[in-house]
Design brief:
The protein has helices at residues 7-62, 67-120, 125-170. Helix 1 runs antiparallel to helix 2, helix 1 (7-62) runs parallel beside helix 3 (125-170) and helix 2 runs antiparallel to helix 3. It is elongated. The model is unreliable at 180-185 (pLDDT under 50). The protein has one domain. The two termini are 46 Å apart. The protein is mainly alpha-helical and 188 residues long.
């Protein structure tokens, strides 16, 4: 689409706004990139912590000792697991739940817009290829982000299964070993 702008308007208005928009885009992309990196590192750290607790449970499952000898280590394991869950809850309350919501809303909107343009848009083949390329680069970035959080959840579920297996093997009452995590519900 060609508009009837003079060269002077283009030079004094168009170029500065283009430069300002590009600089703003670069700053936003850098901030998002580092937030994604921090999020991935925190998720990896939490996954490793939960995996360490899981390895302790597996070691206890392999032991053939009596029930009495395993009560103290299982209390420590439950305490460690509670600490990790409390840490996850603090991360969610402080910042990451809002960031995940924002990223999900923006990425899903962008991906839907790209796919809509690819499927229903009337455009040249080159522009269609550009939208296909943008879709193929945006979708893996979003999946990488979501799978980082999913790794923590998967390892946490593995912990619950291992604890259940341990309690069944030792014929212990799991209600005596409760996980004390107080969840705060925000009323909006």
């Amino acid at each position: 689409m060609i508009n009837n702008y003079s060269l002077i308007e283009f030079i004094f208005v168009g170029i500065p706004w283009l430069a300002l928009s590009l600089m703003g885009g670069v700053v936003v992309c850098r901030i998002l990139f580092w937030q994604f990196i921090y999020f991935h590192i925190i998720c990896f750290y939490l996954t490793l912590n939960i995996r360490q607790v899981n390895n302790k449970i597996i070691d206890l499952l392999r032991l053939k000792n009596s029930k009495k000898d395993n009560r103290k280590p299982i209390r420590q394991i439950i305490h460690d697991f509670t600490d990790i869950l409390t840490e996850i809850n603090e991360y969610n309350d402080e910042f990451w739940s809002k960031f995940i919501l924002l990223v999900t809303a923006v990425f899903v909107a962008i991906i839907c817009a790209y796919l809509y343009q690819i499927i229903f848009g009337v455009m040249d083949i080159i522009l269609r290829l550009v939208f296909i390329y943008l879709s193929l680069t945006t979708i893996p970035i979003y999946f990488f982000f979501i799978l980082s959080a999913a790794s923590v959840t998967a390892e946490e579920e593995r912990s619950y299964h291992l604890m259940y297996k341990f309690f069944n093997k030792m014929n212990l009452d799991s209600t005596k070993f409760s996980i004390n995590l107080k969840m705060k519900v925000n009323k909006s």
